[in-house]
Write the structure tokens for this entry.
Amino acid sequence: MPEQNFRSILTGSFSTPCGDNPTVAMIEAAYRHAGIDARYINCDVSAENLADAVRGARAMEWVGFNCSLPHKVAVIAHLDDLAEAARIIGAVNCVTIRDGRLVGNNTDGKGFLASLQDVVDPKGKRVFMLGAGGAARAIAVELGLAGVAHLDVVNRDPAKAETIAALVRDNTDSDATAHPWDGAARIPEGTDIVINATSVGLGDAQAMPEVDLDTLTKGQVVADVIPNPPMTRFLRAARERGCTPLDGLGMLVNQGVIGVELWLGKTMDADVMKKTLRDIFAASDA
Ligand code: NDP
């Protein structure tokens, strides 16, 4: 009789509130599909309990966990080391635990980059990005590390755009400039990749960032970080103008793939994960 093992590999997530985060469904579907006996436990952890939760994960020999709001910065104080991008970004959303050592990574920008690389190599390209929040910061740093030639960062609050542009200039070989977002944003000539990294469009298929759509040009890659609905109004408008649209669902799925690679050293089936999320989003829209 084959030897049986009733001990599952443990992974999960610490955030609050956590009830609307579908990552658990996406990752456990991938584990099942791969025939791996692993669990992903979605935990509601308040700020004052973060230290205990991290100690618990280490004590129970979890192989790693995600952390989402509000823990992405606070968790750093509980880690032994940081990967390069996480150090530059100053935020961690994925922790690996190996031999009791906790290493922080940031998969927000890596997930975006993996999705982007399916349609274009950003090395040497000119990029125009709307937004300067947490997602924009992570994407900007990864684009810099991937060798973009120039990054324009546009935000209503220009100080936040300048912080990101300076991060890119100071920590990578790429150039970056910040711009205030006054009226309809105009895409500069020569731009190869346009990114909406604002929250405009989340849960609202008719919302669109204020952009002069006539400045989009055929052949540009236009990406959105919004995972739901995946085909945002901005992406629909870009597709009508002959641009290549890239939705935020791929970014979310790739974050899951990269996280499991960091924890288990195994690559999960992205299609299984994407289908799980699509079904969940379709059910929530019904
Ligand atoms: P933040 O709150 O940190 O940043 C929000 C950004 O959106 C800011 O730059 C803000 O500008 C801008 N913004 C909000 N409303 C408007 C508006 N009406 N007009 C112009 N700009 C606006 O959020 P995050 O960066 O964490 O997240 C942004 C989006 O990215 C969310 O919708 C989230 O769902 C998505 N996301 C997707 C991921 C994926 O895997 N697909 C992963 C992570 C995030 P200002 O600074 O001027 O207020």
